[in-house]
Amino acid sequence: MSEQQPSRGNSNTRTIVFMVTLSVVCALVLSIIASVLAKPQAEAKELDRSEQMMIAAKILSYGGYFLIKDDDEKYEPAKFTPGGVLVPGKKTDYATSQQILEIYNKRLVPFLVDHEGNLKSFKEANVDEQEYLSEFQKLGYYKLPLMLVYKILPNPKEGEKIDPEKTQPEGWVIPVNGFGLWDAIYGYLAIDPNGDSVIGITWYQQKETPGLGANISTPEWQSDFPGKLIFQESPDGTTDFKTTELGITVVKGKVPEVLGNTPKAKSAVDGMSGATLTGNGVTAAYQDSLGPYRPFLIKIHDQYKKNNGNKKEASS
């Protein structure tokens, strides 16, 4: 009598059950891992954005150490001391993640500004800060009735308490976003208290071509921005802040070769070889993002002129 063979139907059923069980187990494991890693990933992204903003504001160097100004207004290495005070240091005084976040929270304070250029705190505007920051990041804060701007507070002295609303800023940081060749790009532009001169820039999120458009994230390319003017001068060297073109242009080639010593050169930076479309996207991002801030920039420029004039009168 021949031995009874297992039916093909039972074999297929066991295979299907095994595959479904394995898929469920794998999905469960991946879900647990994603859940466990969600918070660390969010914290890492927040730390990176904080670092990038501080680099734009010249509070943190690309090398990972803090920066302060010396008596000649030049940046020098600094180190962290208890209480969040930065003092002269060395390039080997690397900042820890905790120190970076502490300085960030002390020195970069978010405010809201309307389209008339009026500055408001989140509390004054009755807006939930965390909800606002997370909800509108991808949309672009410049598209909102109340736009985002960060006030750069000065390095405090030991024991000094600084009122974020009353203290004169060392500058302002405006979030910038647009589209590169492949996807959205997000960055920061730090501006001098005069509302016109660039302190620094960074791009904290981009998916451009490595070695080409992705160079917008490199220190070498970003170092071309400090000192550039976001309000373009007229040929006679004057600036009509109400009507002139606003932004920074990435030229195709080298600025001296393309624009020479013309006023436009003061608001332009060198392009990246093989990345013309990314450069065009960066140019458009600055124009689109800064345009709605024009009334605010004019206000802080006028206030700077007034304060600077008063200082000159007092010293004379």
3D structure, described in words:
With 316 residues, the chain is an alpha+beta fold. The chain has one domain (43-315). It has eight helices and eleven strands. The chain has helices at 8-56, 97-107, 122-125, 129-135, 219-222, 255-258, 276-290, 294-315, and strands spanning 66-69, 75-81, 85-88, 108-113, 119-120, 147-152, 171-179, 184-191, 198-205, 249-250, 268-269. The chain has a six-stranded antiparallel beta sheet. The protein is globular, with a radius of gyration of 25 Å. It starts with 7 loop residues before the first helix and ends with a helix.
Task: Detail the topology: elements first, then pairings.
Layout: H1 8-56, E1 66-69, E2 75-81, E3 85-88, H2 97-107, E4 108-113, E5 119-120, H3 122-125, H4 129-135, E6 147-152, E7 171-179, E8 184-191, E9 198-205, H5 219-222, E10 249-250, H6 255-258, E11 268-269, H7 276-290, H8 294-315
Parallel strand pairs: 10-11
Antiparallel strand pairs: 1-2, 2-3, 4-5, 4-6, 6-7, 7-8, 8-9
Write a concise synopsis of the structure shown:
The protein has 316 residues and is an alpha+beta fold.
Widest β-sheet, arrangement of strands: 5-4-6-7-8-9
How much beta, percentage-wise? Answer: 15-25%
Helix coverage percent of residues?
A: 25-40%
Rg on CA atoms, Å? 25 Å
Number of separate strands: 11
SSE succession? HEEEHEEHHEEEEHEHEHH
Envelope shape: globular
The total domain count is: 1
Distance between the termini: 120 Å
Count of helices?
8
